[in-house]
Task: structure prediction
Amino acid sequence: MRLDKLLADAGCGSRSEVKNYIRKGLVKVNDTVLKSPESQVTEDDHILYNGTTVIYERFVYYMLNKPAGVITATKDRAERTVLDLLTGENLKDVAPVGRLDKDTEGLLLLTNDGALAHRLLSPSHHVAKKYLVYLEHPVSGEEADRIKNGLPIGAGEVSGSAQFAQADDSDPCHVYLTITEGKFHEVKRIFEAVQNHVLFLKRISMGSLLLDEKLPTGAYRRLTAEEIKALQESSYASK
Ligand code: URA
Result:
């Protein structure tokens, strides 16, 4: 790719800023000063910008433990977005994979790997998303069966089959729900469809990716190489 694009993608500055740095002779590729922004380079070249090695990663993957009160968007005039929580990162082309409601907490993946995001979100890939849910009322056995089989959730839509389980033997309002689709407000609408109400919602997994229990609410970290590999595999799994 072009040298100026690589430097801009690596977070060294805007495209016009890095063009200037290159023309000023501040950039070396494999120990040679290159003054042409159009020079072609690869990820394997050793690039120094102002004496510092440039780390170029084509794709970046972050796990955020989303807090309530933040919207799942890349930018907004009035509200704080999930991207605002990834301070000091090069977020070029990084976007959240799917959407959690403003009041929902938990696992949110953010990446610039559009192909992976597409597979994880595509209904045909049936990627499982598991939620911890606190409900207003306990769910009866008959209601649990309807939820598991899929039921009308309004607006002419029917939820897909789901897994339902108690999360806590001592509290029947504390449950897990695993769905493989991502209809708008799907979890809340599933419970509304059985005259219940979600009081608290937290996503705890998506495909193979589990929310890191050590990650405080509002914090984020990079995915490990193992997590990325497993997620790539699980995104193909059930097509
Ligand atoms: N389902 C919902 O209702 N809300 C979310 O944030 C995610 C899934």
The domain at 61-113+211-237 is CATH 3.30.70.580 (Alpha-Beta Plaits). The pocket of uracil is lined by residues 100-101, 104, 185-188, 201 (CB under 6 Å).
